[in-house]
Design goal:
With about 180 residues, the chain is α+β, with helices and mostly antiparallel strands. It contains three helices and eleven strands. A six-stranded mixed sheet has the order 1-9-8-4-5-7. Strands 2-3-6 form a three-stranded antiparallel sheet, with helices on one face. A two-stranded antiparallel sheet has the order 10-11. The radius of gyration is 20 Å and the shape is globular.
Length: about 180
Amino acid sequence: MGVRVHRRWASTLATAATTALAAFTLVSCSPPERELIGIRPTADSGGLASLRPCGEDRVASVEVLGSVIRDNLDGPVEDLTSWRVRSPRSVQGPEEIKLFETPDSWTGDPAPLGDQRLKATHGYSVDFIVASGDGVSYRGVVSFTAADLARLERGQVWAGGRAMTVEEFQKHTDQECDDGWF
């Protein structure tokens, strides 16, 4: 019996070590996420994303994901929206793009998923990727709903989970970039 307990303990320890190593690898390989995107509504009920990568970093791509807001997180995800664009090598520094519209000289997703418009029943996330070499340096992120955008006053953007003025957003992104997380 002592040998079985010992083997069981060794097996449990090995499983725990493998799980810990996998978690460490996943965390250590995930690029940092920073609140470097501000969203504001457009006159046609769309959204305009202000992308503020650090310094003159190059934005490689922008992606919008959306789904129905739901109370039961264990249930199925419904009515998905997905849209992605890739930027040309010449895009550096701050940039503004209208959600669901491929900017000139950018490459759009040949098969976007779902309705390519903001819906009142959906929650959205927008991210951009700054790449270096074969990897991702960091991701700019923001999450919002159409209701968040509807509450904004003139001259405000939605960023970091709240409404802020454009000036506050610029200070916020400067702070995100200056925190020494690179």
